[in-house]
Amino acid sequence: MTATLDRPTERPSGGRLVDQFEYGLDAPICLTWELTYACNLACVHCLSSSGRRDPRELTTAEAKALIDEFERMQIFYVNIGGGEPTVRPDFWELLDYAVEHHVGVKFSTNGFRITPERAAILSATDYVDVQISLDGATAEVNDAVRGEGTYDAALRAMANLQAAGMKDFKISVVCTRHNIGQLEQFKAIADTYGAQLRLTRLRPSGRGADVWEELHPLPEQQRELYDWLVAHGEDVLTGDSFFHLAAFGDALPGLNLCGAGRVVCLVDPVGDVYACPFAIHDTFLAGNVRSEGGFDTVWKTSPLFLDLRSPQTGGACTKCSAYDSCRGGCMAAKFFTGLPLDGPDPECVKGNADASLGAVDPSARPGTSQDHSHKGPVRHQPVPLTLVTRRPERSCDESPLTGLGAHSG
Amino acid sequence: MLEMLGQGWSLSDSVSLRPEPFGALAYDFRTRRLSFLKTPALVDVVRRLGGCPSVGAALTSAGVDASEHASYARALRRLADSGVLTPRTVSPEEILV
Asked: What span, in angstroms and rounded, lies between the C-alpha atoms of B18 and A409?
């Protein structure tokens, strides 16, 4: 039994690339590898519910063997994230190893560890790109989501990268109700530091499920975002996040399809392979890289991935005139909000999910199947927007009560 | 774009091809750009470019019918514009071949 024989045989020859991608590829185009669940922050919307290191985390040797496999499969680059990947003691060693083995790396970081010395090394290394997370163009908006002091840390990292001569590093923004009005300010920050702006969608994944209802952009903000993205074209990256907005009119740059298990997947810190970075849940677990045959076999033969590569039905969406544009939207967003996978996206711009979303019993939502969140307060605790008039707790305050109010806002 | 047919081109040094059922992915490690070769036949032609004195010769050696050379030239032009292909200095010996 081979992967090839298991594949749906209806793959068309020629035609649009997007149709080809729906049938899957021999290796992913966009592979995200979360190196660790450990994080020095406790962002309220963390899609992997990160915080504490998992003791089963891949060892350095296992991580290197996985890089070898990526090289064999000609996975040209990987997106490394976490958690905060730089907290792994072997992070820089693995980065070098990947580059030596022709696997380019773009890694996401909160910037705390991007010192002038590290920035100089990164700037001198080909095949490495850095992505600094920033979820507000002001400290007030950013720190409410990412934690006290994280805005300053991110801008410090950007200044270090710029001073080191690093060009076109990325500033990655998760779009929320509170920062859609700051798009021009984000662009200005990116321009100031010689960086490229990347906007992505807030998913109701991980801890994101807890804050999605209060943070996801309002309907009129979706339109504002779409118009802004259209106006900026390929200057602004989106990681193909916003294809559900294509129902407004013209498609945005990118593949405009759900790539889960087809061109995209996630390897988590313990080697579990999920269909996409926003779908860390048993339902979308395809296998583990530690199993016989490794990642290659999981990618090519897992029943879940083969199913995702077979023609999908649009369900209720097929009646909609916009279905060809938005393809029903994001699988993970539907799943974690408790909607059927073959129906409209919870943020369907036609409003077609509004009724069913309102009818979902919150307790019936799937929730998370892993949670590595910090159990106690962290030094850089999110500062609720509603409490900004109060003096935030000092980062040096060691009282066990520090930050305990942060999740009540 | 038809002038390409008489010129020598090859896959850029910084570009790797990955075979796929539809054709191939081309990744440029220098620019980090991903391009797509949409048919296996086009992949075959691209792989032959480096060993042939001209694009036209590569097409012929790949068995591409002369009536299709123009459409292949357009596809190769697009790959050249995105940096996947690089012009080659043709040595006199090769011209004589």
From this structure: 50
Q: How far, in Å, CA of A132 to CA of A173, rounded?
A: 9
Alpha-carbon distance of A182 to A144, in angstroms, equals 15
Residue B90's pLDDT is: 56
> Which residues in chain A have Cβ-Cβ distances shorter than 8 Å to B19?
26
A10 or A171: which leads in pLDDT: A171
pLDDT value of residue B95 = 52
Residues of A in contact with B20 (CB under 8 A): 20, 25-26
Going edge to edge, which strands form the sheet with A104-109?
A: A196-201, A170-175, A128-133, A104-109, A77-82, A30-36, A264-267, A272-274, A285-288
User: Does any CB of chain B come closer than 8 Å to the CB of residue A13?
Assistant: yes
Q: Which of A21, A29, A130 to mutate to test the interface with B (most CBs of B within 10 A)?
A: A29
Instruction: Give bridge partners of residue A128 from the DSSP assignment.
Output: A105
d(CA A52, CA A372): 5
Residue B36 contacts A, CB cutoff 8 Å? yes
Average pLDDT over residues B16-40: 92
Task: Point out the least confidently predicted range of A14-28, A100-114, A118-132.
Answer: A14-28
B65 burial class (0-12, 13-18, 19+ CB within 10 angstroms)?
Answer: exposed
Find the CB nearest A129 among B19, B32, B36.
Answer: B32
- Predicted confidence at residue A33, as pLDDT, reads 98
**Amino acid at residue number A235:** D
Identify the DSSP state of A358.
H
Give how far the C-alpha of residue B40 lies from the chain's centroid of Cα atoms, to the nearest Å.
12
Which amino acid, A266? L
Compute the mean pLDDT over every residue in chain B, rounded to the nearest whole number: 90
Residue B15 to chain A, least CA–CA distance (Å): 10
Q: pLDDT tens for residues A214-236?
A: 999 999 999 999 999 999 988 99
Picking from B16, B18, B38, the nearest residue to A27 by CB comes out as B18
Which of residues 66 through 95 in chain A touch B, CB cutoff 8 A?
74, 76-77
User: What sign for the dihedral angle of Cα A121, A124, A174, A305?
Assistant: negative
For residue A296, the model assigns a pLDDT of: 98
The structure's pTM equals 0.89
Which of B20, B32, B39 has its CB closest to that of A77?
B32
C-alpha to C-alpha distance for A157 and A159, rounded to whole angstroms: 5
Residues B29/A127, Cβ–Cβ less than 8 Å: yes
Q: Kindly tell me if the per-residue pLDDT of A16 is higher than 70.
A: yes
The mean pLDDT of B61-82, rounded to a whole number, is 95
ipTM: 0.84
Q: How far is A406 from chain B (nearest CA, A)?
A: 40
- The answer, for A1 touching chain B at a CB cutoff of 8 Å, is no
